[in-house]
Amino acid sequence: MSRRAFFLPAAILVLAVPAAAETRLSFGLKGGYAYAVFGDYNATSDGTRAVWTWLGPTGSRIEGETPKLHSALDLALEMSLALSPSFAVCLSVGHLKAKNGPFTYTLVSPAGATILSHREEPYARAVPIDLTVRFYPVAKGRLRVYLAAGAGIYFARFDRSGIDDEGTSYFRSFRYDTTAVGLGLHGGLGVEAALTKAFGLLLEIEGRYAPIDDFTGTLTWNDAAGQDSMSGTYYYYEGRLNIDEAKGLLFAADSPDSSFYYGLRKGVIDFSGFSVRAGLFVRI
Asked: What average pLDDT values come out for the chain (284 residues) when binned by 10 residues?
């Protein structure tokens, strides 16, 4: 999406303000539940387990769960300008936050002995700055129904922390801190209920399309040798040499070797999904 395509609708709406019969400024605060796909992180959990099983002795198995990351808290603060009784333009700043775990899974030998234990806590967050156009096709009494569509810039973060433990032979704590910036689209519908001329409540459902890639940052770890760190980027692979089912996310300073990993591309943490939010607004 070009910069011109993103800002042109805003410029047209701003220029249209003087021609409107009435303009009313309002501020809103809303929040609720969000569901997000979270892309490659969820898609690779089974593949990671396959790699672990392959690394152990024949007959090894994985015990424990690798729950998917989906549910998120969704908050937003918005400013809305009514251009006419039927149209408004909104600028909002949101906060999507999802956290899972901590969860643990263990590689167990055929004899039942623990070979390796992995504990992890993933955390995904995005701060979308959205520009939205609302159309009000229905207004009856104190109720107004609207349709909404727009685009936004997403400032995203994806962190993971945990522990790998092989008992007396190896112990490592780790933390990944990565960030990325991308564009997203959204649309939905809502209802506004005016309690007075100045105050009201709203309820809305919104869908998002916001796959974000190019997450770069640092990996920091502590083990018997002490603390160290590296900078890198998340890459996704469909499989690796000798393990066809091993989909995975790889954090690397440079692009991984395509002769060992295949189906390589930048890792995607996909914030696409939907939100159900309720809130209040104040008209000025």
From this structure: 44 41 82 94 75 76 84 97 94 95 86 87 96 94 95 97 82 94 98 94 97 96 90 88 73 85 90 97 93
CA nearest to 128, candidates 187, 190, 74? 74
Q: Which residues of 141-174 are buried (b: 16+ CB within 10 A; e: fewer)?
A: eeebebebebbbbbbbbbbbbbbbbeeeeeeeeb
Find residue 35's DSSP bridge partners.
71, 274
**Strand intervals (E) in 83-113:** 87-99, 103-108
Q: How far apart are CA 261 and CA 184, in angstroms?
A: 29
Query: What is the rounded distance in angstroms from the CA atom of residue 57 to the CA atom of residue 116?
Result: 12
- The sign one gets for the Cα dihedral 195, 28, 30, 143 is positive
In the chain, the number of structural domains is: 1
Q: Looking at residue 82, which CATH number applies to its domain?
A: 2.40.160.70
Cβ-proximal residues to 195 (8 Å cutoff; 6+ apart), any chain:
142, 201
In whole angstroms, give the CA distance from residue 245 to residue 248. 9
pTM of the model: 0.85
Q: Which domain holds residue 159?
A: 3-283
